[in-house]
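Aim 2 progress update. The chain analyzed this quarter is reproduced below.
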Amino acid sequence: MTQQMAVYAAVSCLAAVVAGALLTRLICSVAPCVGLMDYPDGKRKLHSEPKPLGGGVAIYLAVCAVLGVNLLLRNPWGLHVQKDWWDLIILFVAASWIVVLGLLDDRFRLRGRHKLLGQIIAAVVLVAGGYSFGSFNLFGMSVQLGWLGPVVAMVWFLATINSINLLDGMDGQAATLGAIFSITVGMMACATGHYAVAFVAFVLAGATLGFLWFNLPPARIFLGDTGSMLIGLMLGVLAARASLKGPSTFLLAAAIALWTLPFLDSFAAIVRRTLTGRSIYAADRGHIHHCLMQKCKSRETA
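Predicted C-alpha cells:
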C-alpha cells in the first residue's frame, strides 16, 4: 500500500467518524419525536430508562455521504462509479431495504417471520444482482457449485445479517464487533489486492466508530436492528464481492473464520429455543455475552 493510499484512507475514515458522530447526535434528538425508543422490560432489556434507537440510520447516512463524495473524486483506491456502478447500485438497494426493514422493526416490533422475510428479500436482491458463488477451492481442487451457488449465497447473506443482530445485547458490543470486523475485512482485502472493497470497509469502520462514542456504557443511543442488520449485510457483501471479483477465495475463507463465534452463538440460540418449545425468534439471555455477564456478577457477589 502506497503512502498516498494510506493518507487518503485515513482522511476518508476520519471524515466517516465525524459524520457518524454528528449524525448520531442528530438522531438522538430526532428519535424520541418519531417514537424510535427502546423501553426497559425488566427481563432482557435491563437499562434503567428509555433510550433512543436508530443509530444504524446514522451509520448508513455517514457511509453514503463519504462514499458519495469519494465516487466523485479520483481516488487511489480504485473506487470509481464508472467501474463499480452496478455492484454499488445493488449494494445500495439491498442496504436501503435493510435500513427500512430495521426501522419498521425498531418502531413497530415486527414478528420474527416477517423480519426474516424482509431479510430474504434483501438476500434475493443481492443474488439476483450477481452476488453468487459459482465455485470454491478445496485443497487446490476447484469445486463447482452449479445451481447450489445462489443457495449458498442466500444462506451466507442471511447468516451475516443475523450474526451481528443476535449479538447486540450489551452497550457497545455490536458496534465494537462491527468496527473490528470491518477493519479486519479491510486489511484482508488489501492483502488480496481488492482495494475498492478495503476502502468501503474502512469507511464503514469509521462511521461505526463515530456512532460508538455515543453507544459506550452507559449508552446514550442504541444501534437497533437497523444498524446491526446493516453492518452484517455490508460485511457479508464486502467479503463476497472480494472473493467473486478475484482469483482467490482467501478473503471469504478468512471471513468465515472471523464469523465462527457469532455463527455458533446464533446456532446455539436456535437449538436452545427449539428444545425449550419457544419460537426461534424469541429473545432470551442465553447468548455467550449474557452468560459472561452473569459469571462476572456471580464473582462480584461471591
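The mean pLDDT is 82. DSSP finds eleven helices and four strands in the chain. These observations will guide the mutagenesis experiments scheduled for the next reporting period.
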